[in-house]
Amino acid sequence: MASLTKNYRTTVERIEKFISPLYFIDVNLYGRQYPYKTSLPTLLHFDSNGRIPFKEAMEIGNFTTTKVGASFGPTWTTHWFKVRIDIPESWLGKEVHLRWHTGCESMVWTSDGIPLQGLNADDRQSFIVCSNATLEDLRQTFYIEMACNTLLGSGSPTMISPPDRKKYFTLELADIACFDRQVYDLVIDFEVLHGIAKHLPKESPRCFDALYTANEMINIIQKADFSRESYTSARELSSKFLSQHNGESQHKIIAIGNCHIDCAWLWPYEETVRKCARSWSSVVHLMERYSNFRFACSQAQQFMWVKENYPALYEKVKYFVAKGQFIPVGGTWVEMDGNLPGGESFVRQFLYGQRFFQQEFCKRCKEFWLPDTFGYSAQIPQIMRLCGIERFLTTKLSWSLVNEFPHDNFLWEGIDGSTVLVHFPPGKSYTSAVTVKEVVTAIDKLQDKGRVSCSMMLYGHGDGGGGPTENMLERIKRLNNVDGLPKVQHGTPDQFFSTIEEKHINQLCKWSGELYLELHNGTYTTQAKMKFLNRQCEILLRDTELLHSVLLAACRDEDKKAYPELELERLWKIMLLNQFHDVLPGSSIEDVHREASFYYKEVIKGAAGLMDTAVRRLFGVPEGRGEEEELVLVNVLSWQRTELIRVPWYKDEISRRMWIEGVGKAMQNISNEAGGGTLVPVIVVPMGYQLLRGLSAVKSSVVLEQKKDGGFFLKNQFLEAVITSEGCVSSLVLLECRKEAIASGCVANRFVIFDDVPLYWDAWDVMDYHLETGRDAIKEIVEPLKITEQGPLRASLTIRMKIGVNSEMKQKISIDAVHPYLLFESTINWEESHKFLKVEFPVNVLSPQATYEIQFGNLQRPTHCNTSWDWAKYEVCGHKWVDLSEYDWGVSILNKSKYGHSVRGNKMYLSLLRSPKSPDAKADMGKHIITYAIMPHSKTFQQAGVIQQAYQLNYPLHIFPTSHLAKPGASHYVTNAHRVLPLEMHESLSWFQVSDPAIVIETVKKAEDRDDCLVVRMYESFGGRVHVVLRSCLPIHKAVLCNALEDVVESSLQKVKWKGNNLELSFNPYQIISVLLYVEV
After folding, report:
1. Which of 357, 560, 621, 651 has the fewest C-beta atoms lying within 10 Å of its C-beta?
2. Do residues 907 and 577 lie in contact, with contact meaning Cβ atoms separated by under 8 Å?
3. From CA 324, how far away is CA 322, in angstroms rounded?
4. For the CA atoms of 607, 609, 610, 615, what is the dihedral angle to 10 degrees?
5. Given this model, what pLDDT does residue 700 score?
């Protein structure tokens, strides 16, 4: 027996050293897990010079002899090994492991190309060759695919530094060894007892029970010189302790394995494909031995990668999905960023994700699974519910620096009033190892004590994959029901959420609005090119779908009307992949962003080609120039709009005719420097087309005058502006009410540069203290402000300046005859280091709240710092516009590709560029084109048309030539009997329009799996209730409401009727409604 007098510290450390993998392994228990070892008789190597399939490696592999101690590399290269195993006959009946220590990732393959298990330096450096060696097992051959990168890439000197591209990995150990499972079981027992002794409060008797039990076990083993009998006796003691159970009221922890593989981050996309195979093969290998093991896995894209590249492994995955062990979750194509994607992109994540899981596994996901992203839009709850999901899991808000989120289980209410059930695992992690410390911490940190009786623990190596290990599963086995600890039990997400819904839903608190992460707010700005290309792709895909939908509904020719469904889906999925939460936010290595840029450009090229096809079929666009050629203007937005368009000079016949028709007085020639051509004002019908003819002049001309101080005075029918010689706005008056938009004594459009050095997460974080370092960004005026365009329709000024230390900017400031804003277009060559560039607008507005556009709506945030929750939002996310308003008056900032904003008091900032150096040392370096505008307005921003103007800035008119002549005097609308064929071209035609400006038609597409249906998706944008009429000239005979997955809403079958060419609908604030429109075939 142990001495009656014991020192707590020395006894705890005695237990620790007895099972230490680092100390005294020559005499402790840990070092006895492999009593017998033997080297490999044959070890051959082949440098594949790239990531190639197993079959190709076998076909071209020129294997040569290598040995332990050799090094392989450099980073990102792949090496194949042929391993022959000769098990000694004396090991018959024993468990035999292949041990492989390289410090990087590897995959074990059978000789006929079946992936068996991943290997890595994090708790998985061996593979079970056989658990009970027979004569047939003695001679075997395996192949090992070695990837020269770690689970978390190859950053140096820190994890998030740019990768060390010259790193080599040494084969430190390659052998087979006889594994002593009895010793291993004791090691796990000791781990658990040590954890209880160390992490339970010293006031707990169980703490010292564990301490004395483990101490006595060591005495038994050491006194008997590590005999088999002593192992048995020691296990009897541990079993006695661990079999003392809890009461019925003890908290239950549902343990769910996962491996959260980032689709790209500190490694490229291609490596993620192999990470999935390494991790999932390890998971199914464990499932074959642990029938109660449950593993949750999200991201349909990764399932698709495995299906395409590892079909044998995928069949095993499908088998365990059917058994209920391998559990698809999330319902999305990837784990996307939660702030930056547009609303329709969110919908498509669920649409394509849920369709994949339904097609592959005959089930849809019940939980939205997004453990690791950088904040969550307040419109997510409604989108979730429209996609058949009412449960949400994440952990990331535990990273907030300032405020601790007050709940782990709660109801989350979106801006439309939709609510979903949310769980934050109280362990604050998705990479738990199921240690006693983590179990104790989970219950200590639980925010909802007394409200819930269970919580989740997500365990397994993550981010770079790896997943659960045998050690974790063995600890769960021992922690299943131990007195003094929460009950740790295998389970599923569905079991957990069902328990909360059945027992605790009425005790939960509600959180309204966004889930703002008080960290990683630099990701709204980092890698500006990603944001720019993403918005381009979102817009182009939307417009392309609209035109092909019209063609599908209106064209009689079956060949011409063919909808490119597969190609559009392919392009959408490429863009959705790039919206992964480390790609679009800009927090990946250079290789990833280079590849993502290529993918975005592939989407742009592909969508442009599809649009060209639709336009040619709709409007008879000629291959070359024709004498009777006209221009057709396509408005993709659901309201009438007035714009200026540029008619190229080579369209001389069009220009001549317009002068004859009397429109010439409203035209303006454009210099070659400004693009060349003729500037023409146009008014185009809602979501339709208009031929360029018979247009009337605008109400008033633009005025541009130079002032004596070198500045300029600009004026149109809406605004008067004074621009200083430095390019700043010293005055901006809204003529309608004669109110000044710029704060007294201040100038707007002032460029401010900040020092931008975070605590660690370079590409991710903008710290609060950066606000203390702001100063003028302009160092020198290289070319003074000058007139570059002057005429009745538009006037422009241009200035070129040096900013920061090494950067230069050229900016054009414009005012035109038709838009109620002042426009700024900048070209910046950015070459800074750890600097943050913003543009500042001090405005003459007093308001405690600013309003920001988000997906399918808008959100208010404080402009003051009353509480820590308020001032922590010093950098926030918005989409196309932000508005600061008081009663009957306000100012909005519109933009074309920016997402970072800050409004403090009356100062509005638009974040333009950052310059972090990790993990991409070249992040944001180079040329950028940035467009934004300032729009003062009377009344509310809704009444002033801010939403519409922001859309118009981002969604330009499409202009196409057509050789088909229109019917003279044809009206905006035709009856359903007409079809929109080129031979029936009308002067103008509106395909869709809505009777109230609050409603935005966001999407028109062909329905999935239905060739006779279109989907029209709309949302209420003002934040109010409205009854509207949707009109269409297309041959529609029936309308049915559907959800975002395009399932028919049964309750709408009797309520929604298509009458004539109309459909009446009622919207609640920020409500999204999707309608299936059945087309006459």
Report:
1. 560
2. no
3. 5
4. 120
5. 79
Amino acid at 599: Y
Residue 667 confidence class, pLDDT cut points 50, 70, 90: confident
CA dihedral 306, 311, 317, 321 (to 10 degrees): 100
In angstroms, the Cα distances linking 718 to 106, 641, 703, 724 are 66, 16, 12, 20
Is residue 893 within 8 A of residue 841, CB to CB? The reply is yes
Residues with Cβ within 8 Å of residue 1034, at least 6 apart in sequence: 550, 553, 554, 976, 980, 991, 992, 1014, 1077, 1079
* CA–CA distance, 301 with 297 (Å, rounded to integer): 11
List the structure tokens of 535: 């918005």
Query: Of 372, 762, 816, 924, which is the active-site residue?
Result: 372
Rounded distance between C-alpha atoms, residue 489 and residue 477, angstroms: 8
| DSSP states along 553-622 | HH---HHHH---HHHHHHHHHHHHHHTBTTTTTT-S-HHHHHHHHHHHHHHHHHHHHHHHHHHHHHH---
- pLDDT tens column, 964-1023: 655 544 444 333 334 444 435 678 899 999 999 999 999 999 999 999 999 999 999 999
Q: Supply the pTM of this predicted model.
A: 0.95
User: Would you call 1050 helix, strand, or coil by DSSP?
Assistant: helix
Query: With 0-12 CB in 10 A as exposed, 13-18 as middle and 19+ as buried, what is 365?
Result: buried
Rg (CA), the chain: 33
Nearest C-alpha neighbor of 463 from the set 430, 495, 434: 430
Measured between alpha carbons, how far is 121 from 112 in angstroms, rounded to an integer?
Answer: 26
Chain-centroid distance of CA 520 in Å reads 13
Please spell the DSSP secondary structure of 252-309, one letter per residue: EEEEEE---B-SSSSS-HHHHHHHHHHHHHHHHHHHTT-TT--EEE--HHHHHHHHHH
Res. 2 pLDDT band, cuts 50 70 90: low
What digits encode the pLDDT tens for the residues 398-420? 999 999 999 999 999 999 999 99
372 catalytic? Reply is yes
Count of Cβ atoms closer than 10 Å to residue 873 Cβ: 19
